[in-house]
């Protein structure tokens, strides 16, 4: 059975473009984004890694370390990074795993044989500082992911880990959030001094609590 939300993200050692790493050591106490792409020197993957690199400051601001992965060899990764930097106007400095023996891809169930026998699909895992898997998404090779959406989910995960709230559909940082059903309105009014708007007994909003 594949990995599921709440499972511990398996540790691994891997050859990457920043040298050999131990996944847990690389993450330290940070959040992590581990994502696979089908192959080097392919157009959609080039834009995905470029976009991730361009968002470096946004990931750092959220204490997130990113790692990409494909089953291509390390020499190909190094060569391809030159193309990514040139065409996407960036400087890729996060590690790209060369998973030639497919060890990590197999552990993380990134190869879906009915999509491709040999290449990884576009899997993405968000991993918390507790090493638990917080989000899993899988996209087909033909569709590039939205890394701004990945940041939005991280904002939600980091907020909801600290406060008794959940985030509504299409929520963006700064917008009102939902009071979780597990707490009463009486308790919510104590916890959220900015106020609680009761639309229905089960649908209650409060201003984002970690903002001044
Ligand atoms: C791409 O990254 O452009 C791509 C990779 C595999 C199949 C189709 C597109």
Textual characterization of the structure:
Strand 6 and strand 7 form a beta hairpin. The longest helix is centred in the last third of the chain and has 16 residues, at 147-162. The protein contains seven helices and eleven strands. Helix 2 crosses helix 4. The chain has helices spanning 23-27, 43-54, 56-61, 74-88, 103-107, 147-162, 185-191, and strands at 13-16, 19-22, 31-36, 64-70, 96-98, 122-127, 133-139, 165-166, 177-179, 197-200, 203-206. The model has no long low-confidence stretch (mean pLDDT 97). It is an alpha+beta fold and 212 residues long. Helix content is 31%, strand content 24%. The protein folds into two domains: 13-145, Glutaredoxin, CATH 3.40.30; 163-206, Antioxidant, Horf6, Chain A, domain2 (Antioxidant, Horf6, Chain A, domain 2). The chain has a five-stranded mixed beta sheet with strand order 5-4-3-6-7. Strands 8-9-11-10 form a four-stranded antiparallel beta sheet, covered by helices on one side. The structure holds benzoic acid. Benzoic acid (BEZ) is lined by residues 38-39, 42-45, 141-142.
Topology:
Elements: E1 13-16, E2 19-22, H1 23-27, E3 31-36, H2 43-54, H3 56-61, E4 64-70, H4 74-88, E5 96-98, H5 103-107, E6 122-127, E7 133-139, H6 147-162, E8 165-166, E9 177-179, H7 185-191, E10 197-200, E11 203-206
Parallel strand pairs: 3-4, 4-5
Antiparallel strand pairs: 1-2, 3-6, 6-7, 8-9, 9-11, 10-11
Benzoic acid binds next to helix 2.
